[in-house]
Amino acid sequence: MDSRQRHPQRRKRLKRPLDSIIIHFDYDAFYASVIEAETPSLRTRPLAIQQKQIVVTCNYEARRRGLYKLQLIKEAKKLCPDVVIVLGEDLTQFRNASKELYAFLRSFSWNSRCERLGFDEVWMDVTDMVNYNLELLNPTDLTSSFFCLSKSDPSIGFTFDASKVAGQTYPVQVDTSPDGPSNLLRMRLILGSHLAHYLRERLASEKDHTCTAGISTNKLLSKLVGNVHKPNDQTTLFPPYNSEDGQDNVTSFIDSHEVGKIPGIGFKTALNLRALVLQRPAKFDQGLVYGGTKEKVLVGDVRKVPDIGPEALEQILGGTGAPHGIGAKVYGLLFGIDDSEVGQARDVPTQISLEDSYIRLDTISEVKKELLLLSKSLLRRMHADLLEEDEDALASARTITDSAEPTETPTKRWMAFPKTLRLTTRPRPPKNPDGSHNRSFARISRSGPMPNFVFTLKDDVDTIAERLVAEALLPLFRRLHPERSGWNLSLVNVAATNMVDAASEKGGVGRDISKMFKRQDQVLKGFKVTDSDDVVPVMSRAAYEVMNTAVYSDQTGVVDTNVHDLKNARGGSEDLPTPSQEATIATQDHWESEDEEMLDEDRYACDECGAVMPLFAMGAHARWHSDS
Ligand code: DCP
Ligand code: MG
Ligand code: MG
Questions:
Q1: Interval between CA 590 and ligand 2 midpoint (Å)
Q2: How far is the CA of 30 from the centre of ligand 1 (A)?
Q3: Taking the CB of residue 349, how many other CB atoms lie within 10 A of it?
Q4: Which CATH class is domain 243-345?
Q5: Model confidence at 571, in pLDDT bands (50, 70, 90)?
């Protein structure tokens, strides 16, 4: 069985691809910065943003006074009595600011490879802009170079000194002499550094937000190297990137990182890698602190494990639930190799999903109330994310009046419409005969076609939401839970899925609501929604082609009570906070990319029950398992 023993692997040194130049941006103290942009007088005051009982972020003035992210509000106040606290439960303004900044950065991109992660990170693949400008350089006069930002208008751009890198470098001492072994890559990285610097300045002067940037050859390295100098600064990972003996800058850089800090290495994988090095599980931190583990295992330590390689890692990390090829992927990451592409910019998500979790939800009347709240949020999100201003409103109004559909307010139009409505619940399992209870709560769901009336712009959201609950969600709910009582739900999720791009068809279907409905019927014809827990839509090729690829989801804040009070407030050991309730202390709205693990460094799945939560909650969560 173990071919490794018969053919021990040699430790292979992987060659790092150097074709791309990627910039990673991370806005400084983002939520605080959004509040400051609105009220500039707060800039000089210590400012903390509160969600539940926690400081989700604070400005750098507050950080100078010892405050930090994910600190308890109580502690922050004790440490800094004059801290200004602003409630940040409502994410609308942060979401809007995030979209605006993203759109601004994206407007500079030539290839639209511009990807947002969470609210405050953006990657830009600037390979094309850099390579174009490399050709324009005059090697005899690098100091007065011009960076062209437009291929069609050579006057648009900025002047810069190409003999120097902009901002900081890793390592601090670098060789910038014009010839040397890594000359070409170095020049391209220097160009990237000046572009990053220019974009950061424009962002600060025009959008009032400072940010931190990292410049390298892939998503992983650009993100990690940006962290070296924070805030309001930038760092370029300098060559050499490849060497025979490991004496290159990427190796020394990546080797000093704790394995759990590598984006793409999830919580569970990190546990396994630590155990591999230590030959036993690593110890958890005792406090509710950011950082997860007491015992740090560095990337370099893992790479030194004898016989480590893609196959060995596949055996250790592969198996149930792990994506195929995880061994090769993780082995690459340990070398700083990440071949994931920066996602192409897109205007609409493929799904909008909202959920709440509950200590106890066990009556139909409460369910109706919650479904109504979720429906209203869902509709508001659909309006915010799927509607755009219709410049041809008048023309559109004319076509609508001669259609059978009632006249719509034609100032906005749908860019895309979701074909499917999905309802998901997570029932608490009944106690086992011996009185114990199972820890893993599975989600179950039912789906049906999205009713057309949700797309009307004539009625207000509240009216549509009521109809959506009565005519679509309650019927789905009855299919999920045919009994009138006897269940207790810990979570309800309502989602609009299977997005069809309205503008993908020539003639802009989105402009004309009646045509759009006709088109929707056509699309739905080739689309069978099955009534199983796992909805596997069968799509016509045409429908498939207009499906988008990225997904995002939103989790709304949940129980307003402090988690520590929940047990007393709501009684019974059964009502111990469920993992997702803990997680909601600081859940954040985020964009999911297809690469789940790359998605968000703050969200991890529990090894034991699979519950997803931010890293800082893992310690408490693990203790909850061991206590119960
Ligand atoms: N956030 C949150 N819950 C978390 C982590 C973050 O709500 N568990 C929010 C608040 C932050 C934003 O996401 O403002 C971005 O997160 P960052 O970790 O990038 O933190 P900041 O941008 O606030 O600070 P920094 O300057 O360290 O990047
Ligand atoms: Mg940030
Ligand atoms: Mg961030």
A1: 13
A2: 6
A3: 23
A4: mainly alpha
A5: very low
> Cis peptide leading into 139, omega within 30 of 0?
no
User: How far is residue 367's CA from residue 374's CA, in Å, rounded to a whole number?
Assistant: 10
Ligand nearest the Cα of residue 94 is 1
β-bridge pairing 84-87 and 47-51: parallel
Residue having the nearest C-alpha atom to atom 3 of ligand 1: 586
What angle, rounded to 10 degrees, do the helices at 183-207 and 127-136 form?
Answer: 110
Q: 215-242: per-residue pLDDT in tens?
A: 999 999 999 999 999 999 999 999 999 9
Domain residue ranges of the chain, discontinuous segments joined by +: 243-345, 352-521, 541-627
- pLDDT number for residue 607: 56
Question: What does each C-alpha distance from 56 to 6, 49, 121 come to in angstroms?
Answer: 52, 6, 16
Buried b / exposed e along 20-34 (16+ C-beta atoms within 10 A):
bbbbbbbbbbbbbbb
Q: How far apart are CA 590 and CA 510, in angstroms?
A: 26
Do 57 and 32 meet the contact criterion of CB atoms below 8 Å apart?
Answer: yes
The 10 Å Cβ neighbour count of residue 248 is: 18
- Collect all residues with Cβ–Cβ distance below 8 Å to 612 and sequence separation of at least 6: 579, 580, 583, 603, 604, 605, 606
Residue type, 591: W
Identify the three-state secondary structure at position 552: strand
* Spacing, Cα 357 to ligand 2 middle (Å): 27
Q: Whose CA is nearest to atom 8 of ligand 1?
A: 586
The whole-number average pLDDT for the span 480-491 is: 94
Quick one: angle between helices 326-334 and 267-278, nearest 10? Answer: 70
CATH architecture of the domain covering 352-521: 2-Layer Sandwich (3.30)
The beta-strand segments (E) located in 375-415 are 387-389, 412-414
DSSP 177-225: -S-STTHHHHHHHHHHHHHHHHHHHHHHHHH---EEEEEESSHHHHHHH
* Distance from C-alpha of 354 to C-alpha of 619, rounded to nearest angstrom: 26
| Stronger pLDDT, 605 or 81, i.e. the higher one | 81
Tell me, in angstroms, the distance from the centre of ligand 1 to residue 82's CA.
Answer: 22
Catalytic site residue from 36, 121, 314, 601: 121
pLDDT reading at 414 higher than 80: yes
Residues lining ligand 1, Cβ inside 6 A: 26-31, 56-57, 69, 119-120, 230-231, 586, 588, 602, 614
Residue 496 banded pLDDT, cuts 50, 70, 90: very high
Which ligand has the minimum distance to the alpha carbon of residue 121? 3
Read off the pLDDT of residues 238-294 as tens digits, 9 standing for 90 and up: 999 999 888 999 999 999 999 999 999 988 899 999 999 999 888 775 444 444 667
Closest Cα to atom 21 of ligand 1: 29
Ligand 1, atom nearest to 88 Cα: 7
User: Which pLDDT value is given to residue 74?
Assistant: 97
Give which of 148, 222, 238 is closest to 190, Cα–Cα: 238
Per-residue model confidence (pLDDT) at position 175: 76
Nearest bound ligand to the CA of residue 49: 1
Q: Is 135 a catalytic residue?
A: no
Q: Would the CA dihedral through 135, 136, 142, 148 be positive or negative? A: negative
Q: Which residue, 92, 46, 18, is CA-closest to 249?
A: 18
Q: Using one digit for the tens of pLDDT, what is the confidence trace for 540-560?
A: 222 222 222 222 233 222 222
